[in-house]
Amino acid sequence: MLTASHLNLKRQGKPLLQDISLQLIPGEVTVLLGPNGAGKSSLLSLLSGLYSPDSGSVLLDEQSVVALDPQLRACYLAMYTQQQPLNFSFQVDEVVALGCYPLQLSAAEMAERVRDYLSQFELEQLSQRQYTRLSGGEQQRVQVARVMAQVGSQCRVLLLDEPVSEMDLKYQQLLMQRIRQVAATGVAVCCVLHDLNLAAQLADQIVLLQNGRMLAAGTVGEVMTEARLSDLYQVSVRKVETDAGPLFSSR
Amino acid sequence: MSDIKISGLFWLALPVVMVLSLITGPVSVDLTSIFGDSVASQVFWQLRVPRLLLTLLAGALLAMTGAAAQSLFRNSLADPGLIGISAGAALSAGVVMVLLGSSVALLGGLLLPLAAFAGGVVTTVLVARLAVTLQGVSVTNMLLCGIAINAIALAGLGGLKYFAADNELRQLSFWLLGSLNHSRWQDLLVLLVAALPVLWLLPRYGQKLNLLLLGEQQASLLGLDVVRCKRVMILLIALGVGAVVALTGIIGFVGLVVPHLVRLMTGPDNRRLLPLSGLLGAVLLTVADILSRILVSPAELPVGIVTALVGGPFFLLLLTRRKQESGIC
After folding, report:
1. 10 Å Cβ neighbour count for A73?
2. How far apart are CA A83 and CA A86, in angstroms?
3. B214 touching chain A per CB within 8 A
4. How many CA atoms does the CB half-sphere of A155 hold within 13 Å?
């Protein structure tokens, strides 16, 4: 279990996160929602141990995430970040293979795993293509496949920062399925999304962030109310209950 | 073409250019008469062989450190010459050369390489600090930083020339042009001391450099100790470039052209790029050295002029291609 307690973070005097506490539970998917600049990416960075909070702590089963040895942390925790600055012409399969680095596999095991993840994300046709020549959506799919390939048997936490921002509907749904499959193996997942419908479809727990503070946390039914979402995003949000779950629209 | 074929091609080219290098020059050397007391034998053992070995090492070092710098800065234009590392090393070595005069040979000739290494470390750290922004590596900052450091070093070296005595001025001027024609066995030993850790360690960092190409955050998330890796890279690049600059002056563009050619053939994977760049760098600098001996024969061009004549247009070609592809730069 990943436990964040009373996290505070300031940059250049401006508070980015204030007194955030939350738990990521094994087997559950937590979705972070909030407008741009609410502090979602900053929170994920603290949860991943990439940065230290000014105060507060992030513990992975009683161990401080920041203090973990990088190699060990890479076995326990995988994260997809928004910025992917790769601009060298690796082949797609080579990029996915880099995700297997912490797992210390043999060449044969690595090749097998890369094939598996290329297949899971329907990238077989692109496997020999140069990454830099792909479309934005394809590049995102490759990077997500790389991060998912890092999730080995020791992995306990998966963090995803807007992983579907450039994907079309088909691959958004494909990724939602994959995330649920990963969670089903006992991994605690935390995902930043902007699409309310995808969030409602995916989440066991929703956390709403506004101006660096936690506005609410709970199940979809408890937290994603019209009034709260309208207030959060400063637009009118409508919610319609259907057999397949709630549907959200805005105007 | 497969990696094995490319590697085989480079290995085949190596003995060919080595033999050509040994027999090319104003004194005719016949390989059948290299044992004995003849002038040809003296030229062969005291001039040609150390020169060839020094050229091979310098070429390998320049190309490998160029490839490593490009991975460190995550940009294929990050040639140690262009971004000021060579100039920083040269300024530092130049200061020592002029200040110490004839005492520069102290410490078995290690003083100049040590000074160049120190200058290289300072400049690499400076470029790394200034070029890396919150959004990642800024190419503009990196190249501007190179322009500024090159300008400062040029001014510093100009000042040194102004104040230098006749002997030092001559030594400094020839050295700065980038030349291999004063190579001695003693220089070779000095270069070997610096080259061994670089040639041994750099290829072992291939996969780590690959991770670094994904961005520092991703590299860290994949288990790389990013700070340590960057420190080791800076030291190795400064050591390799510094040693070559101290002994041969500034030989530009090898670190830019060679990794580019290898990447075109085998892709950007540093596990292949680093050793193959070393091999091709050794071959191509030897070719450039042969050209420097025959272009204005019986006189000799400094090899830095030959590499700049080839590398300069190559750099412009790269910029044009980047402009066409737009966005990547």
Report:
1. 25
2. 9
3. yes
4. 30
3-state secondary structure of A78: strand
Q: Which residue of B has its CA nearest to A45?
A: B217
Going from the N-terminus, what domains does chain A have, and what CATH number goes with each? 2-80+156-250 (3.40.50.300)
CATH of the domain at B103: 1.10.3470.10
Structure tokens at B56: 């091979």
Stretch 130-149 of chain B: residues touching chain A, C-beta under 8 Å: 135-137
Exposed/middle/buried for B97, CB within 10 Å: 0-12, 13-18, 19+? buried
CB pairs under 8 A between A and B: 70
Nearest CA of chain A to the CA of B269: how many Å? 7
Residue B222 with chain A: CB contacts under 8 Å: 74, 98-99, 101-102, 150
Q: How many domains does chain B have?
A: 1
ipTM of the complex in this document: 0.94
Say yes or no: B223 contacts chain A, CB-CB below 8 A. yes
With beta carbons less than 8 A apart as the criterion, state whether B237 and B120 touch. yes
Tell which of A95, A101, A105 to mutate to test the B interface (max B CBs under 10 Å): A101
One pLDDT digit (tens) per residue for chain A, 251 residues: 999 999 999 988 889 999 999 999 999 999 999 999 999 999 999 999 999 999 999 999 989 999 999 999 999 999 999 988 898 999 999 999 999 999 999 999 999 999 999 999 999 999 999 999 999 999 999 999 999 999 999 999 999 999 999 999 999 999 999 999 999 999 999 999 999 999 999 999 999 999 999 999 999 999 999 999 999 999 999 999 998 889 999 88
Query: Distance between CA B38 and CA A152 in Å, rounded?
Result: 69
Question: Chain B residues with CB inside 8 Å of A91's CB?
Answer: 267
Q: Is B25 left (phi over 0), alpha (psi -120 to 50) or beta?
A: left
Closest approach of B211 to chain A, Cα-based (Å): 7
B273 to chain A, closest Cα gap in Å: 12
Residue-range definition of the domain harbouring residue B154: 3-325
Tell me if A84 and B224 make a contact (CB, 8 A cut-off). no
